[in-house]
Design goal:
- Pfam families: TetR_N (PF00440).
- This is TetR family transcriptional regulator.
- Keywords: DNA-binding, Transcription, Transcription regulation.
- By secondary structure, the chain is an all-alpha fold.
- The protein has two domains: 47 residues, Arc Repressor Mutant, subunit A, CATH 1.10.10; 134 residues, Orthogonal Bundle (Tetracycline Repressor, domain 2), CATH 1.10.357.10.
- Helices cover 66% and strands 0% of the residues.
- Helix 2 packs across helix 5 and helix 5 packs parallel to helix 8.
- The longest helix has 25 residues.
Amino acid sequence: MLRIRRYASGMAVTGSESASRRRAPRADAIRNRETIVDAASAVLAEQGTAVDVREIARRSEVGMGTLYRHFPTKEDLVRTVLRKDFTEWAETARAAAADAEDPWAALIDFYDQALTGYAHHRAIMEHFALAVPVPDPEGLGRLRLVIEELCVRATDQLRPGVTADDLLLLLVSLGHAVQITGECRPDMWRRLLRISLDGLRADLPPLPADISPDISRVPANSKAGPERASG
């Protein structure tokens, strides 16, 4: 009887351990997910969010069933990829600014890096606008903190009245310029950036106080409902 109890107890432990192993993601499942995300990142950068997810499955060399298991809807996949890519984009721009000792050079480097990355990622172009929900609110928050820091560093070199909201809206506006001129004159935004930054220099008259931007009052469009991952 004692042997039976010990055996039964041992089976219970073994069964529990086996169930735990089954619940843990397998190495190939983790690898497939990473492959899908990497492929989706490249495709979304090239083609934007209108891409058919069958192209993502083809690039990642997995079946549609595998893609569905990881991302039941296209929206799930796009949101996951854009959150990662947006964070990396914002961090790259922050690092570029941090490397410059001169405050004005830091401001230029920030915009250069941010808009260069923006120009090479169609999906971020489509989502990084204050009129639509951004893919990574936390990433946008970090980006805003960087802009606020740049604004403080360059206080003596910035036109009186310029705020962090002005600098953030300038980034959004120049981002739209990248979209408009991207195919016909892909480097036009660099000229517009220099013109815009020259208008922020400290030797110009103060900006009118009654037209200070208030980003919190910019309306947000509603997003469409979930879309099946079939594209």
